[in-house]
Amino acid sequence: MEGSGTGRDSDRFVVLTGGPGSGKSTLIDRLEEAGFSRTEEAGRAIIQDQSAIGGPALPWADKDLFAELMLSWELRSHRAAAAQGPGPVFFDRGVVDVVGYLRLEGRPVPEHVHRAALSHRYHRRVFAAPPWPEIFRNDAERRQSAEEARRTYEAVTGAYVDYGYELVTLPKAPVEVRARFLLDNIPLS
Q1: What is the pTM of this model?
Q2: Which of 3, 37, 49, 182 has the highest local Cβ count within 10 Å?
Q3: Residue 74 Cα to chain centre, angstroms
Q4: How many whole angstroms separate alpha carbon 95 and alpha carbon 130?
Q5: How many CB atoms lie within 10 A of CB 107?
Q6: Residue 102: how many CB atoms within 10 A of its CB?
Q7: What CA–CA distance (Å, rounded) separates 21 from 150?
Q8: How are beta strands 13-18 and 89-92 bridged, if at all?
Q9: Which of 148, 173, 182, 168 is nearest to 38 (CA)?
């Protein structure tokens, strides 16, 4: 499928996943500062946009609509990354995270979401930021408790395993150490 990240593209698309407040975005910000390409996290941006316009696609208002907007965002991110030049692209979550979110919320995973997770692939190694209560903080978009963050981690990492990815757990360490660990544990061309 054109633009779906099959073949060589999937080898350069590296996903960071995990629960909220575990340092994923901070790590991706650091990788971007080092010159790597990246995507933006869907959930936070959708919450900001929907809040700004009084929209209904919020996780505390309409979980299914929120998931559909996240899916659209991730598909667009995948397509945009495929259009970029060569080199790795670091994803702040991916299509499979939508599956994890739906499972977490006790929602069925629609067939089109399943098809998207199968057709829009990433590097076989997915990096997971484990729950880290010492750095977890709530803010305007992150309303989950530390316990909900832990359950989110379990749901999204379980989804990646179910879709055939190899999980690599990031160390609970300063961002520079995490970045080096990630770069040392993935063959980037």
Answers
A1: 0.88
A2: 182
A3: 8
A4: 19
A5: 13
A6: 22
A7: 10
A8: parallel
A9: 182
